[in-house]
Amino acid sequence: MNRVTRIIFADSDGLSRAPMAAALFSMIYDKKDVEVFSRGINVAFEEPLNQKADAVMIGNGIETTGMKSRALKNYEITDRTIIFTMEARERADILSGFESARGENVRVLSDYVGDQLEIMDPYGGTVQSYGLCFELIKTTIKKLVAMLEDDGIFVREDD
């Protein structure tokens, strides 16, 4: 097992769930021993955050200035990187589309913390649906941080 120095939260477009997860993790996890990023898997060009996600984040005290979608790059994935996706299909996309990605360093966030439900994309929903997504991510991130504080941050083998 390798000690993780970079955590990447990834979703399909990098416009809402991944930035929420990265921002929440950075707020809750008080150690500064890892780099934290949000990335999109299918990002042709950088875009501002989804307006509804932006509103929810600002409403919850998260500074969003300068946040935008950024494409995941193969060179960002090392043996000391763990990528948390929001859905299993996103994990599969990364594993099939990025040479450096391996099963043990690309994980579905909810599965990693022992939850059953994936974090579905609220795209097209109301601001309230983005708010519910934010709360689900927050609960999941709190579980992740508790695990990391107990066990440290390591790339774990697939179960």
Kindly describe this structure:
Helix content is 38%, strand content 13%. By secondary structure, the protein is α/β, with parallel strands linked by helices. The chain has one domain (6-151): Response regulator (Rossmann fold, 3-Layer(aba) Sandwich), CATH 3.40.50. Strand 3, helix 3 and strand 4 (106-108) form a beta-alpha-beta unit. Helix 1 (17-28) crosses helix 5 and helix 2 crosses helix 5 (127-151). The protein is globular, with a radius of gyration of 14 Å.
List the helices and strands and how they pair.
Layout: E1 6-11, H1 17-28, E2 35-40, H2 51-59, E3 81-85, H3 88-97, E4 106-108, H4 109-112, H5 127-151
Parallel strand pairs: 1-2, 1-3, 3-4
Helix pairs in contact: 1-5, 2-5
- CATH arch. level architecture: 3-Layer(aba) Sandwich
Radius of gyration: 14 Å
Number of strands: 4
Provide the CATH topology. Answer: Rossmann fold
**How is the largest sheet built, in terms of strand order?**
2-1-3-4
How would you sum up the major sheet?
4 strands, parallel
Shape: globular
Note the total helix count.
5
Number of individual domains: 1
| Fraction in beta strands | 5-15%
